[in-house]
Amino acid sequence: MTAADPDIDAFTRPYWDATAEGRLLLMRCGACGRAHHYPREFCPHCWSEDVRWEESSGRATLYTWSVVHRNDLPPFGDRVPYVAAVVDLAEGPRLMTEVVGVPEADLRIGMDLEVAFRREGEVSVPVFGRASPG
Hints:
The chain is mostly beta strands and 134 residues long. The protein has one helix spanning 13-20, and strands at residues 25-29, 35-36, 51-55, 59-68, 82-89, 94-99, 112-120, 123-130.
């Protein structure tokens, strides 16, 4: 485990196991029905503890982005420039991530994206690229 790896506990283990398999999980509240991300043991909308894992479609739209040209913190320094972004998942939650494989000139607010996964240390993290047609 490296300093950049997340703390994985019994609650978050299903999330990280799913990312290793190329699947993105969200939490959905059984009380109010809303999805949320990052995983937590209660609903941030209604505070219910009736939350469960649900697989995301992996589809998203670009909400905003910034091209990072300098970052001295590992592992980011080796990747500059990169596109730090916020995406709106099809299920509703907003997620901080990175857009990969899309030239800066092609980035547009609202563009369709889909999840991919990149290995980082001991975990796989969700990143987003241009959505395939269909």
